[in-house]
Protein 1
Amino acid sequence: MTARVVVADDQSVVREGIVMLLGLLPGIEVVGSARDGEEAVALVAERAPDVVLMDLRMPRCDGVEATRRIRKEYPNTQVVVLTTFAEDESLFPALQAGARGYLTKDAGGDEIVRAIHAVLSGEAGFSPAVQRRLLERVTTAPAPAGPPAAEQQLPDGLTPREAEVLVLIAEGLSNPEIARKLHISQATVKSHINNLFAKTGVRDRAQAVRYAYVRGLAHPPGTSFT
């Protein structure tokens, strides 16, 4: 079976190199390439590929958000992340968004082909490094008795990360400062902000700060509690 693939990466040299490599591999047909997540989603809608090889740190719409949209709107297209680092901050959000494979950019052609065909067969396509990280997470994390109380009490369907970003907005941090504090990209910060704005119905940062105060997620400066 020939797998029809779209490549999404914001760096032209990297993107063109991946396209060239895939063109030399058996059972792979590249049907398009995208410079960011918005283009990736549009290409999926236009060309209905079997798999998207998705970078994560891209402008406009990052890879996690693009993956979430593709898996929701075009469930017949699978996503394999192809990024630089297998770090928790990108690995687990990508998997939660619906990615079925996760490779780092030092993967060889054979490894990429295996991952693509694995996800098309309903399996997971992970690099050995990612498999080890997942195993470490499973074996070291304590089994919770249930959702943390903080998660249960979050209003309007906010995720813990979105609530964390909201609190930092209320503290007056800018997007770059939030990105540095949480060790995530500015594109990911923007994605979280867009999501929490949509869920809470606020239109700007000032309304977001007021929302955080009213809902008890943050407290005005100078307020003390006993």
Protein 2
Amino acid sequence: MKATEVPAIAGAYLFEPTPYADERGFFCRTFDADVLRSVGLDPHAFVQDSLSRSVRGVLRGLHLRSGAGEAKLVRCSYGKVFDVVVDLRPDSPTYLGRAFFELSGETQTTVYIPAGCAHGFQALTATADTSYRIDRPHDPAEDVTIAYDDPELAIPWPLPATSMSQRDREAPSLAEVLKQREG
């Protein structure tokens, strides 16, 4: 497994495994504590695993947590997604930086998203399963959502959004969220 820094988001990494394929399919390691340690991450910090299943066009995000934030490892375990990370840490050298990835079940690449960054994705295939490994238990009271179509972010979503949660549809702009965080 290879770890690569994401230049647009300070502290973000891509973890690319080496799938071994044969006539049966493939096998690969999707989590390796030693590789995480090699880039300064504590593998024991992750306390919760979650999975979402989405159909083509479904858009989830942009989400982040208030308070201490939430670091996560995100991987598309089946299908393909367009994945987005936005750096919202005011003291970060990549503040307001954006990074886009295509994550797929074919490659099993994982993106590490530091606490304080917003995250979202869109399913590109008929079915897309997305796995999350999160560094603290979920508290819905800390959920923050930013409009996926905010013109300031200008995210190039590859498909029209066919479905999303009410919370995502009604999300405030980036400017509104930043103003709330300052106040």
Protein 3
Amino acid sequence: MTQVSFDTLVAGALSGKLISFPTDTVPALASLPEQATLIFQAKQRAQDKPLILMAANPEALWAFVKGSDQEYQIWQEVADKYWPGALTLVLPASARVPIAMNPIDPTTIGIRVPNCAIARKILAQTGPLATTSANLSGQPPLQTMAEITAQFPEVLVLASTEYESKIPGNGIPSTVAKWTGMNWQILRQGGVKLN
């Protein structure tokens, strides 16, 4: 029952359930931002490993971060260049970000727009979601919806009939770049080279 249609997946997410869907990197485990605790519990993830806020477009994410006009301009330029894509920007969090997204350091939030049509179609319906890779903490990311269904039977997984059978992701996690107030610090080098 856990592999579901697009509409059931979206409805499940909006009702507060954990869902999983393909992205351009690895499949995502996702929930509404205020339900992010469910992800930490399902993955047995340490509280000091924050989640990423993923959305269908940059405009849906800017309200979750705060900075000066100059900073917003810099961030927008990077977003214009690399999004949609495998780049996560870690920026100062606004008051709109639920503490559950980053319990240990709620001052920052990672944001991303995936380069994957089915992921953006889902996110356009749900609004921004708390996301991370679908796997138990410390284990490699699961690559197929069947693996995710087996490991997380309680999670609603997008049925492979809802998109082209090949998982769109390349299996390489996103590059994570943190804004220091002056420049970018690369926390994890992934598929995108920031220059």
